[in-house]
Structure formats: C-alpha cells, structure tokens
Description:
By secondary structure, the protein is α/β, with parallel strands linked by helices. It has 2 domains: 4-45 and 279-373, Alpha-Beta Complex (Aspartate Aminotransferase, domain 1), CATH 3.90.1150.10; 64-275, Type I PLP-dependent aspartate aminotransferase-like (Major domain) (Aspartate Aminotransferase, domain 2, 3-Layer(aba) Sandwich), CATH 3.40.640. It is 42% helix and 13% strand. It contains 15 helices and 12 strands. The model has no long low-confidence stretch (mean pLDDT 94).
Amino acid sequence: MSDPSVRFLSTRSRSVDSSGIRKVFDLGVDLKDPINLSIGQPDFDVPPSIRQAAIDAIQAGHNRYTVTQGIAPLRERLTADLQEELGLTLPVLITSGVSGGILLALMALLDPGDQVVCQDPSFVSYTHTVRLLGGVPKLVNTYPDFRFDPDRFEQAITKRTKMLVLATPSNPTGVVLQSDELQQAATLAERHDLILVLDEIYAQLTYDQRVGSGFSFAPERTLLLRGFGKSYGMTGWRLGYAAGPRFLIEEMAKLQQYTFVCAPSMVQHAGLAAIDADISNHVADYRRKRDLVMDQLSNDFDLVRPGGGFYFFPRVPDRFADGAGMAEAAVGKNLLIIPGSVFSKQDTHFRLSYAAPDETLMRGCRILCDLARGV
C-alpha cells in the first residue's frame, strides 16, 4: 500500500508542520524534573472566586449549549466595559479562546490566495491558520527591536492583501506597541482598505505603562480579540471574545455555529466573575520576575526589555549556530526553551517564559549564562 498520509491526508493539512513547541517537549520527554522555561501559560492557579463561579454554574445546571454569540450577561458586561474604555458601543462575540477568534476571523475574511500581513516574529498560529484556509501569510521583519515600522509593513502589502494582524503585547517578544505605532497601523489599514486585527490576549499583563487599545483609531475596520486565559490562569478553559464591525462579528457568529458551536457554558458564567477578580498581585509579581530575569541575563545576552506578557526573546550567543542549537544545548543541561524558528522565518533568537517560580528562573538563568560563556 502506498503511503496513506499522501493518499488520504489533505494537501492543506500536510502543508502545516507540528508545533515546534511540541518538538521541544519531545526532546525533553526523558528529562527528570526539567527546568521548564518553555511553557506559555501562567504559573498561578485560577483565582478562587472564578473557580467557585464555575462550580456554581455547573451545580446550577449551566451545562448545555448556550446561544452561539455567548450568554447575554457576559456579552452585555463586556459591551459596557468597552463602551467605558473606548467610547463605542460594539457587538461582542464570545469565542473559544482567542485562537478560536483568530480562526473565525480568518474563515470569515479570506478567500484562497488572499494575503495576511503579520509581524515576524509572531504567535505560531497566525501563519499556519492562514495557510490552512488557503491564504498566504506575508511576514514583516521587525528585528532587532520588534517595533512597528510602517514603511516595512507597507512594502509587504499587495493588491491581494486583506488583513493586517498585530499582537500587543507580543508573543514571543513581550513588546508593547505604543499609541503612535497603533495609529500608523490603522492609517495603513485605511490607506490600503484592510481589516486590522489586534490580538490583545496579554493586554492586562503590562508592566511599565498602560497603552490604550489601538481599536479606536479605525473602529470601522478593526477587530479586537481578547481573552481570559493568560490573565486569570484559565488557559484550559478556552474563553475569549471578539468585538468589532457588526458585519464581521455577525459573520464570525454564523461560522461559530458550524465549528465551535459556543464557548464552554459554565466557563462563560465564570467569565463574569473573572472580570471583577483582582489580579494586580499577579501583575506585580510578573513585573518583578521580568526585572529579575533582565538583571540576570543582560550581561550575557542581547535582548529587548519586554513591556508585557511573560516572555523574553534573547538573541542566540555567537557560539551557537542558531536557536535550535541553543535549545538542544539547553536540553543537555536539563533546561527547556523554545528556538526562535518556531515563531519566525529566522532562527537567531530563542524564547523563554518567566511564568515560573523564582527558584526555577534563577536556575534557568544560571544555565543560560553558562551556555553563553561556554562554561
């Protein structure tokens, strides 16, 4: 029999590799108690009030499908909060995480051959999901400072470009785009008649100054994606939301009927409690961890100080050929990090997460500095 993967699997599916993050996990599968700075999720548990709200929802029988758009109390609360923040009344769709929102938006907007402009480096799902839907990702080099350069982005735009996707704060760099950069992005979207997608999953985890959302610069063509997972330790609960132009939100809701159906019902009820939960202690703790890692690595690595999220994206020391080599050497020291090629067309950097206990961070940083020095 011929290779069944060629005979039966779609070209679309075979065009996408397994996650490079999973490959790192495979490398470390035999490690005993590894120092794990690879994982992209909070190291704290869901706050008690949110957990109790989910339990109460289950006990109250909220275990069935909800309406596709999401339960009315959650949508109404989010609409009110966005009105207060942005001065706009926006339709809201509750999604199965921000990743669910990304997929629905791309499904609603892309025809085969349409192009999507993204940052390089950027979150792994953008390029792969675009390809799965027959689109063409166009990656814009943002090295070395990972800022938004309007000239670079404009050079990537063609007549087939339909969307501009930006994340702030960014995964993997932790860079927070400033208001002038967001306004420049909105101007580009208007000039070239694009939809601007703003992925703000880490918006509550910012440490130096709070930059307002870029949504209001071009509200008639901007889609805002936010979620609860990273801020409240709810990554496995799969809860996010999308807000933006009514025509797009309604189309995404239609498509959700045939894909996710709805976000998990009891989690939607818990989302109401999450909005009122105080996570300022966690934000302060991550700010402190960010500064701790910065202090430990800055003498041995070329790195950009992250303004949000919980990642660093340092440049690989000259003694290593690439990020893959660095990651393999780290595995040899019982340390897990992610090579930059997972997030980028180039492999000159690596990602580490500081969502970890201080003792783990200190051990990991010592190993990284030893690797940089050739010790």
